[in-house]
Amino acid sequence: MKIRIEIDEKIQEEEVIIRSPVLDERIRRIQTAVAEAAAREKTMSFLKGDTEYYLPLRKILFFETDGDEIYAHTADDAYKSKYRLYELEELLPGYFMRVSKSTILNIKSIYAINRSVSTSCTVQFQKSYKQVYVSRHYYKPLRNRLEEKRKRSMKKGNWFWGT
């Protein structure tokens, strides 16, 4: 068995490809091990009161500072993070990006963007009243990332944003 790692700074998310002449039990075990490892990495622990919660990152809409604390926001709740924003930037997968001095956003969760002529734009999320402001400095990089995502989805034959 050969194992090869290719580094490509242009990609947004890691991809694992298994090539084999047959799909036997050994290959299924490798697939299961990789899937379990990926699933473990896509959760993070957060605090709310005296309780520690383990949430999948896909449920996190955004991370935001509130005074000295960092909060992870889901559609209907907020949890305290033990990481600072600069640490989260290093830890989070490629579908998160900083959109202001105080916010990191899950671009997969964007439902709408309201652009204002004079100020920053506002991002809305589906099935949530929460909104995030994107500073003018980060607006163009965000639009570029969303355009790249749209193009990749179209190449794969996925015609809808959520796929």
Concise overview:
By secondary structure, this protein is of the alpha+beta class. It contains 3 helices and 10 strands, in the order αβββββαβββββα. 16% of the residues are buried.
Per the principal axes of the C-alpha atoms, what is the gross shape?
A: globular
Taking pLDDT < 50 over at least 5 consecutive residues as the criterion, the unreliable ranges are none
Q: Using only CA atoms, what is the Rg?
A: 18 Å
Oligomer: single chain
The side-by-side strand order for the widest beta sheet comes to 5-4-3-7-6
Tally of DSSP helical segments: 3
Q: Outline the biggest β-sheet.
A: 5 strands, antiparallel
How far apart are the termini?
Answer: 33 Å
What is the averaged pLDDT score?
Answer: 86
Number of strands: 10
Strand coverage percent: 25-35%
How are helices and strands ordered from N to C? HEEEEEHEEEEEH
What does this structure look like?
The chain is an alpha+beta fold and 163 residues long. Helices cover 27% and strands 30% of the residues. The protein has three helices and ten strands, in the order αβββββαβββββα. The strands form three sheets. The chain has a five-stranded antiparallel β-sheet. The protein has a three-stranded antiparallel β-sheet with strand order 8-9-10. Strands 1-2 form a two-stranded antiparallel sheet. The model has no long low-confidence stretch (mean pLDDT 86).
Task: For the structure shown, list the relevant keywords.
163 residues; alpha+beta; 5-stranded antiparallel beta sheet; 3-stranded antiparallel beta sheet
